[in-house]
Amino acid sequence: MTFADLKTDYKGSKAPLFRLALVTGIRTVLTAGFYRFWMKTRMRRYYWSAIRPGGMPLEYAGRATEKLLGFLTAVVFLAFYIGIVNLILMFFSFSLFEGNTPAYALSLLGITPLIFFAQYRARRYVLARTRWRGIRFGLEPGVAGFVWRSLLHWGLTVVTLGLWWPVKTFWLEKYRTDRTFYGDHRMHQGGSWRMLIRPMLNLYLSVALMVGAGVAIGVAEDPRFAALIVLGFGWFLYGLGAWKAGTFKALTETKTLGEAGLRTQPRTGRIIGIYAGGWGAMVGLFILGMIVSGIVLAIIGAITGFAFDTLGEEVDISTLGSIPPIIPIVTGIILYFGVFIMWNVLKETFITLPLAHHFAEVTEIVNPAALNAVRQRSRDEFAEAEGFADALPLGDAF
Amino acid sequence: MSGEGAQPVYADFVDGTDAVTHRVSLQLSRTHLHITLPEGETLYWALEDLRALPDQAYADGLVLSDGHAGTARLVIDNPHVARELRGLAPNLSRSAPVGNWGRIFGWAGGALTSVAVIIFVLVPIMADQLATYLPPEGERALGDATFEQIRGALGREAAPVRLCEAPAGRAALDAMMARLDPSADLPYDVRLAVLDHDLVNAFALPGGRVILFRGLIEEAESADEVASILAHEVGHVVNRDPTRDALRSAGSIGVLGLLFGDFAGGTVVLLLANQLINAKYSQAAEAAADDYAHDLMREAEVDPGALGRIFARLLDEYGDAEGIMAHFASHPQMVDRIEAAQAAAEGGVYDRPVITDAEWQDLREICGPRAAQDSDSPGAQDESEGRLGGRN
């Protein structure tokens, strides 16, 4: 038995993930979205297995068919809610306010509790299907408490123009962590919301600078203050990276499982580098792709033009119009979906994977010997899986 | 790792009951993998029951389980051992059987039924009911919002499409409306607008807004034909079709969004699907609007056959062409609609056009003299750029 801390290995790499994301993305589009449950399952298996605390990979044991089933269950309930409620809202919006903005706003508001509901249920499902050292994680039922807390904290965040953000982040994380189990052991989120103030400082100050500069432009009518806005924006971007690293460190190092804890050293510079490099790679590859397809089109154009020329006098513009309309339509559809697939694939490859890599390799388990007392927990069947999260556009990666 | 006395091979093992990892030694027999725990106990996993976890990031290794049920895992990081086992275990990549297809198909049926009931029954019924309760001001607001969207969408760059308002042309249009005189049937006044655009089309929007495009007026060979289209659109207003449509799509777009989720570019699939649903409804609505137009024109002693004539010509000209008229012309009941208009005209004597010839000339120049010059070549070339999903 050793008391050394358990370091985390990371085994994921860009090329295989790129292949997996591309293949599953294409299948998803070819099946009009049906394959997305398999895509999600396979991507998660990859991401989970890449993270190896103490050399032992995480396992994602979720199945595509249970996601499909959960999605179908959610559709039965949600279709009614969304169809009928939207219609009624639209009706009242136009009869009372003579505009559709209130309807959209109300509809969004009406769906908000559902989104928090779906988030908690999805977390429960994902944890129930995550294993490490053969032991299941789990999340205690408690969705009602999460929904009202989320509504309250998000409401306060909006009202305070974002000042409440660290408090919200801490309490919602604590609510979920305190209900998280590893085997038969309950996790605990220690610390307080105050420790998230420091990571937030850069964001507060940079926004203050930008607002101040904006006011100064208005008052002094001196456009030179615009330079301060540019400066503030750069500072803000740095602040986002610092917030991500700072909150991850603060929240992770105060999580405990019995006697075991975590230590982590995420680096702001690395996180900013990943985003900058990732976006750079994505945009660069897209521009390259456009240049290449432009050249290919030009070559095709030249060849067909040449063919027309050799036909001699029969060439007139109307024959060009007689190309079956299906060809440009199909080309358009392929291009459209192709762009979407490639964007997602590149995002997974150049942003999600490097971020997971960084957070994994800087994190280690303190006093891992305490984990030996953990016993298995029974399986959480949870037939609904993450159906609600699937059906609602949450736009989440995991 | 097979022979006696060979170098022992090690792997990590968890038994699925506690979080203790065991460094185990592995040996092979003809049929089994022998897993010997440090305490001396040996587990025997049949080679044919070995399963490997799929989609693992460390592809040179193996994470094994004994069948699909258990939570015990054997993690083999040594690529040589992993490769050897891949050759020996025949069913490594066999995936776990799906035992709940019955339930999946059951819920799939349930989900489809509930979506179908909501989209095709509940939402239309509610939209029909609610449309009649919507106060006229609300309908007008709905129509105005849509009107501005359409003008913006058809305009070039930032400028919305110009309204055609030559006073003489306006007067001719008003005279046409006065002759048709639908006011007895209307929940609110019709507000007519002519847009300076090549589209051969006309729309009715919620709240009594009716839009004619310059292209349609140029395409018409007589004032009666324009009047017939106008009467058709008034029919939509009387039946409150545009309002129903708007409410219905508010309900069904959200539901369709659920089904397709937000996978890559799902929005397009969603809009297409909604288009199909609306197209299905519009057939009944179109027929009702035609019937209304026939009656209105007969009462105003204007030839209802004009509707058939302009339809027939459009069918001829754009029969299998692209553009805005395509879905109009390729309607399966287009021929029926032409015949219905002819039947409605039978037995009547219509010797007085809906407006005078002079007024008809004014109407043709409602967008300015340029329109009159162009009238020989109906502007169908531009159509494909402004495809709209409204009511025609």
Tell me, rounded to a whole number, the average pLDDT of chain A. Answer: 86
What would the principal axes of the Cα set say about the shape of chain A? globular
Which term fits the overall shape of chain B?
rod-shaped
What's the quaternary structure here? heterodimer
**Stretches with pLDDT under 50, minimum 5 residues of chain A:** 310-321, 394-398
**What structural class do helix, strand and pairing data of chain B support?**
alpha+beta
Number of helices of chain B: 13
* Rg of chain B, Cα atoms, Å: 35 Å
N- and C-termini, Cα separation of chain B? 78 Å
Q: Estimate the strand proportion of chain A.
A: 5-15%
* Radius of gyration of chain A (Å): 26 Å
Structural class determined from secondary elements of chain A: alpha+beta
Biggest sheet, spatial arrangement of strands of chain B? 4-3-2-1-7-6-5
Poorly predicted runs of 5 or more residues of chain B: 1-5, 320-330, 371-392
Order of helices and strands of chain B: EEEEEEEHHHHEEEHHHHHHHHH
Largest interface: A-B, 80 and 73 residues
Tag the structure with descriptive keywords.
heterodimer; A: 398 residues; alpha+beta; 12 helices; 10 strands; 10% strand; globular; B: 392 residues; three-stranded mixed beta sheet; 13 helices; 12% strand; membrane (chain A)
Describe the structure.
Chain A contains 12 helices and 10 strands. Chain A is globular and about 75 Å long. Chain A has 398 residues and is of the alpha+beta class. Chain A has a domain at 6-13 and 47-195 and 255-263 and 284-390. A 10-stranded antiparallel beta sheet of chain A has the order 2-1-10-9-8-7-6-5-4-3. Chain A is 67% helix and 10% strand. With 392 residues, chain B is α+β, with helices and mostly antiparallel strands. Chain B contains 13 helices and 10 strands. Chain B has 2 domains: 9-88, PH-domain like; 113-386, no CATH class. In chain B, a hairpin with a 7-residue loop joins strand 1 and strand 2 (22-28). The chains are: A alpha+beta (398), B alpha+beta (392). At the A-B interface, helix 1, helix 2, helix 3 and helix 11 of A face helix 2, helix 3, helix 7 and helix 8 of B.
